[in-house]
Amino acid sequence: MGLRDNLPDKVTLEIWDPHLPLYNEDVDRSDAPGHVLRFRNAIANSDGVVIVTPEYNHGLPGVLKNALDWASRPFGKSVLTNKPALAISISPAFTGGVRAHAQLNETLLAIPALVLGGPQVVIGNIAEKIDDGVLVDQPSLNFALTALRRMITLCRLGSRRQIA
Fold first, then answer.
1. Is the pTM of this model over 0.85?
2. Using CA atoms, how far apart are residues 86 and 79, in angstroms rounded to an integer?
3. Distance CA 119, CA 100 (A)
4. Rounded to an integer, what distance in angstroms lies between the CA atom of residue 44 and that of residue 42?
5. Residues 115-131: pLDDT tens digits?
6. What is the Rg, in whole angstroms, of the alpha carbon atoms belonging to the chain?
7. Concatenated DSSP letters for 7-35?
8. pLDDT at residue 59 above 60?
């Protein structure tokens, strides 16, 4: 049982794995590529975002940074502006991806998304804690769920119910 299986009633969690072109301001117009517009619309129509990321070479994966670049534009009109955001990092190392986590939070704050405060959800030794891509380690799952419940509460304060 992972995060999705432990959500309160009327809360949904959509999993997105966007395959976006490299960000290019020259093509970022109202007629931007369709998958970019769908990605932005999914974020705009959600009440909050949960971003789970691995750490590669002591940092944020380029694919995620690229997705955040698409979501952060156009300047001043980002679909992430004031959107509640929960960062979760994972790593095979015992540190749990803390450097990627810090970079993700820094990027989200610059957008400016509403980064959930509190204990940072970093999960180390991830290979030992998943089964078929699902987090099964109960202490790690409980820790992540506690943060997710805090975010749901924050979203509900604004009459929100869906998380992307």
1. yes
2. 15
3. 15
4. 6
5. 999 999 999 999 999 99
6. 16
7. PPTT-EE-------PPP-GGG-STT--HH
8. yes
The region of weakest confidence among 23-32, 41-50, 67-76 is: 23-32
Helix residue spans in the chain (DSSP H): 34-44, 62-71, 98-110, 138-157
For residue 68, give Cα distances in angstroms to 6, 118, 134.
Answer: 27, 22, 24
Residues 6+ apart with CB under 8 A from 54: 61, 89, 90, 91, 97, 100, 126
Asked if 15 and 52 touch (Cβ cutoff 8 Å), the reply is no
Helix (H) or strand (E) holding 55: none
Considering only CA atoms, which of 81, 92, 84 is closest in space to residue 151?
84
Q: Which long-range contacts (CB under 8 A, 24 or more apart) does 107-110 make?
A: 107/60, 107/65, 107/68, 108/51, 108/68, 108/80, 110/72
Chain CA centroid to CA 108, Å: 10
Between 107 and 154, the more confident residue is 107
